[in-house]
Write a structure and sequence with these properties.
The complex is a heterodimer of chains A (288) and B (284). In chain A, the strands form two sheets. In chain A, strands 6-7-8-3-9-10 form a six-stranded mixed sheet, with helices on both faces. Chain A has a four-stranded antiparallel sheet with strand order 2-1-4-5, with helices on one face. Chain A is built from eleven helices and ten strands. Chain A has two domains: 228 residues, Rossmann fold (3-Layer(aba) Sandwich); 41 residues, no CATH class. By secondary structure, chain A is an alpha/beta fold. The chains are: A alpha/beta (288), B alpha/beta (284).
Chain lengths: 288, 284
Amino acid sequence: MDTVIKVEGLSHVYSEGTPFEKTAIHDIDVEFYSGQLVAVIGHTGSGKSTFIQHLNGLLKPTSGRVYCEGEDIFATKEATRDVRFKVGLVFQYPEYQLFEETVYRDIAFGPKNMKLSEKEVDERVREAARFVGLSEDLFEKSPLELSGGQKRRIAIAGVIAMRPKVLILDEPTAGLDPAGCEGILKNITDYRHETGSTVLLVTHSMDDAARIADRLIVFHGGRIAMDGTPEEVFKRAQELTDMGLDVPQPAAIASELRRLGAKLPESIYTSAQLHEAVLALLRKGAAD
Amino acid sequence: MNLQDMQPIIRVEDLHYTYPGDEIETLHGLDLEIAEGSFVAVLGHNGSGKSTLAKLMNAILLPTSGRVYVDGIDTADEDRLLDVRRTVGMVFQNPDNQIVANVVEDDVAFAPENLGVPSAEIRKRVDDALRTVGMYEYRLHAPHLLSGGQKQRVAIAGVLAMQPRCVVLDEPTAMLDPVGRREVVATVTRLCRERGMTVVLITHHMSECVGADRLVVMSEGRIAADGTPREVFSQVELLRSEGLSVPATTELIYELRRDGYELPLGALSVGECAAAIMAAVKGA
């Protein structure tokens, strides 16, 4: 697998040398591969937001290095500028950051800054709108007239329109109702399948992570406490609970069934897997 | 107990509401009674009218037609507005939008100060409210340095300091992480169970409704389901058609029933669900 981002010995200390000095992340080594969908998990204050802000150069490390496609992103000013286009970051509650007069111009802001031709900007705006399911009828409306869910889609489209190699979304479903969450998650998985981009999804929802991610990274106390497939991570249910994190509901039900003596496979963390395993159990019960 | 003792703290009668400038009605004739001392969760997707209903419960909005009574007072009676607001306190979604002071205890004192409560009494109420939400240790902290869950608990303390009989919370956990969510839900549950305060919790998180006495599901400006959480969650098709999810426990049992296994849909907790499945495995 091709490495897109490589992080070496990354540490960040806030307000260094003042009484408020706080080490947010310690000595992190990690690599992200092309086309992966990675869920980044951790409770508030675990360091995950500090971490992702280094990946597109918004925060400078206190020590350590970040490489994007082999290039040190902090080596020169130009490299730091370039990484903003290669690694697109969608913040939490991005709907508060819309500022243009029309939906079209808001989505076009990023690609315009890349000094692309008008035709190419137009192509990208339409493509990005399609990815997030925004109708072109809305292009000439003011973003302020639209619903919260639509505004969030506009903000995500604005980043996608830069065609980043890596798309990072910080809790893109926060505050949305279940149907809204479902829609955004589907947009993200479709985008990733169609473009082959790497996606990092920062989330509190273990159920979402279980459903769509290939790989899970769990932050705790400014370090990476776990890194593996959903199967590998959710096996360590007790440790997750001790960190103040949830386990996916199906995994919790499976572990209660095991406690009551049921023999179930170890890798159960989605509803479909649980249903299948329990059905096998019931059929076997009938056969005994 | 006679009927007069059972007077609901909030009574909604044929409530219609249309936002100014809108052509379409948001609420289409709701009837609802909230019993004093109960914990009622209101669930619905965005645009179902649940937040509009919340705002009508303490006269932030007034009915286009129909009536809302708070402790028997018509919320449209301007002369009694203060009584309505004293009876029903509101907590909103974004903790950053409802904190006004630079020090936690000043923030909590804001409402009783405005109500003209004597200062010794304010001191007592503020301390009491902060202890109730578990934020007394933070009384001299700056609110902006607290976590989301802590800020939301300070906002709840601010409402408690007015000593309302009912508190309406409009998606108080939408912007919080799982730890903050649990803190807030545990706090309001305690207020209801230990202090007998009426709690109306508006949310779209199923997990927060499980401990309520009653669950009301809103859809397109109407009440789509109303009952105990056990009764309402059993209506899996209805909830799905409303764009709401059901707890993983209910979903599993629902699927197994479709496979032909007789399992109780009411088994809501992880423990109940697992026990019901084990009983079926052994009995099969």
